[in-house]
Design goal:
The chain is α/β, with parallel strands linked by helices. It contains 17 helices and 16 strands. Bound molecules: 3-methyl-2-oxobutanoic acid and zinc ion.
């Protein structure tokens, strides 16, 4: 079996998804989980985009020990220098350089002839070679690049010192047979191609990102780039969990395997969804809530007789284990701790005590506390943002015959408390108007979404909001059995993050790749 290297770009290309805005702590949290998942390479960001981005990549490079950390750079010296700075503490640093090569990009974006593209990329790789042993070069929009020119570019990259050549289908235009043919041709025609690794980087604009990545493997690719849950620019990137599980399930066909810890997949997916606020659709392959649900009678009958009739992957393969211990209002601390261990959370005594108090509170409001409820409760506050404002209480008056109003009690970090009432065109609007007044912050609500953590009328509701102030955006989350309280919590959480971001130098929002 050939080993396929997994290059995760959730923190770089994934973070380019509209509405996603990870702060440094969140990036580190995801990177540490990716390390547990066992990915080989983590692209942590684009350090030249802003000092804030550089700091994020540097923090990941410091925290992660068992994966190569990668920084992205345009083919310019200042970008390469920014990656050098960001990766100075990395155990296994790697530079990812790119330059567009397709006729459309050459003509309209770069305004360069083929020769200039070759020279610019070669100069950048040679400059970088003084500082990096590992260099990946990406001819951006390779999918729409003339195949003979792509061979020429790859040959130049190898000669100049690249150790990986990545083939991006930047706009998700390729079909599997066309994309596979690029790898076959490069393997057959480029001198010394065996001295480097070939990588595939696909986008999902036509829904073919996973199929294209697998076609690349079939035709000799050594590495697959993608993101967890397939998040990313526009329709997203190749969903890594799909490629990984395909190789695990059909290794005979592909004659290839990864070294991924499959049982960490569900947890990684959940964490990425939570911290990015990007909800995983129920029918998403591998990690969707319905991926292992069997609804029709015929299927259920088959499953009861023999699981393999309708199940090609078992849920526990990806770490979806329903624990047998059922907890309720009368459960004690000991049973609660056992439950946490059973679910894979080995917490300190202090953390167990805090979680237990929250659990008791929840069990008072909710008859059955499920594993999902406990997980949501434990993961609600993964990241500690300094609390400039604390929501002490919220009260809503609603009637469909009158204008809704809300009163919030907010405490500031200085200890001042104030109660403010405001009206709105709905209960949530009234709450948000009251919080705006109480905090004197002028913000724009860019996004609001709500989902229930489990089924049932008493399910926990999880709200995700994105707030914008001038050019800075921040997201926030809130969890409660009451959706209005969850909405208020999410808003205050986002406000605190916005203020934190405003204070940190070099903040930035979305980067532009030009
Ligand atoms: O899609 C793309 O072309 C990219 C490059 C920077 C590799 O993300
Ligand atoms: Zn991309």
């Amino acid at each position: 079996m050939r080993k396929i290297y997994i290059f995760d770009t959730t923190l770089r290309d994934g973070e380019q998804s509209p509405g996603v805005n990870l702060n440094t702590q969140e990036k580190v949290e995801i990177a540490l989980q990716l390390e547990k998942l066992g990915v080989d390479r983590i692209e942590a960001g684009f350090p030249a985009a802003s000092p804030g981005d550089l700091a994020g990549v540097a923090a990941v490079a410091k925290a992660v020990k068992n994966a190569s950390i990668i920084g992205l750079a345009r083919s310019r010296e200042q970008d390469i220098d920014a990656v050098r700075e960001a990766l100075k503490d990395a155990q296994d640093p790697c530079l990812h350089l790119f330059l567009a090569t397709s006729p459309i990009h050459r003509k309209h974006k770069l305004r360069m002839e083929k020769q200039q593209v070759l020279e610019t990329a070669e100069r950048a790789i040679r400059y970088a070679k003084q500082y990096f042993n590992k260099i990946e070069f990406s001819p951006e929009d390779a999918g729409r690049t003339e195949l003979d020119f792509l061979c020429e570019v790859t040959e130049m990259a190898i000669r100049a010192g690249a150790t990986v050549v990545n083939i991006p289908d930047t706009v998700g235009y390729m079909t599997p047979s066309e994309f596979g043919n690029i790898f076959k041709t490069l393997k057959e025609q480029v001198p010394n191609i065996e001295s480097i690794q070939l990588s595939a980087h696909c986008h999902d604009d036509l829904g073919m990102a996973t199929a294209n990545a697998l076609a690349a493997i079939k035709n000799g690719a050594d590495q697959i780039e993608g993101t967890i849950n397939g998040i990313g620019e526009r329709a997203g990137n190749t969903a890594l969990e799909e490629v990984i599980l395909t190789l695990a399930t059909r290794s005979e066909y592909y004659q290839a395997e990864t070294t991924i810890q499959l049982t960490e997949i569900a947890k990684t997916s959940r964490l990425v969804s939570k911290l990015t606020g990007m909800v995983v659709p129920g029918n998403k392959a591998i990690v969707g809530a319905n991926a292992f649900a069997h609804e029709s009678g015929i299927h259920q009958d088959g499953m009861l007789k023999e699981k393999t009739t309708y199940e090609i992957i078992s849920p526990d393969t990806i770490g979806l284990k329903e624990s047998k211990l059922v907890l309720g209002k009368h459960s004690g601390r000991h049973a609660f701790r056992e439950k946490l261990l059973d679910m894979g959370y080995d917490l300190s005594d202090e953390a167990v005590n805090t979680a237990f108090a929250k659990f008791k509170d929840l069990a008072d409001k909710k008859k059955n506390v499920s594993d999902e409820d406990i997980r949501a409760m434990l993961e609600e506050k993964l990241i500690d943002t300094p609390e400039v404002f604390v929501l002490e209480a919220v009260e809503v008056s609603y009637s469909n015959q009158a204008t809704p109003s809300a009163t919030v009690r907010i405490r500031s970090a200085a200890g001042e408390e104030q109660s403010v009432t405001a009206e709105g065109n709905g209960s949530v609007d009234a709450i948000y108007n009251a919080i705006d007044k109480a905090t004197s912050e002028v913000v724009e609500l860019e996004d609001y979404s709500i989902k229930s953590v489990t089924q049932g009328k008493d399910a926990l509701g999880e709200v995700h909001v994105v707030l914008k102030q001038e050019e800075v955006s921040a997201q926030g989350r809130g969890l409660s059995t009451d959706i209005l309280e969850a909405s208020a919590r999410a808003y205050v959480d986002a406000l605190n993050r916005l203020i934190d971001k405003r204070k940190s130098p070099g903040r930035r929002d979305k980067m532009s790749l030009i």
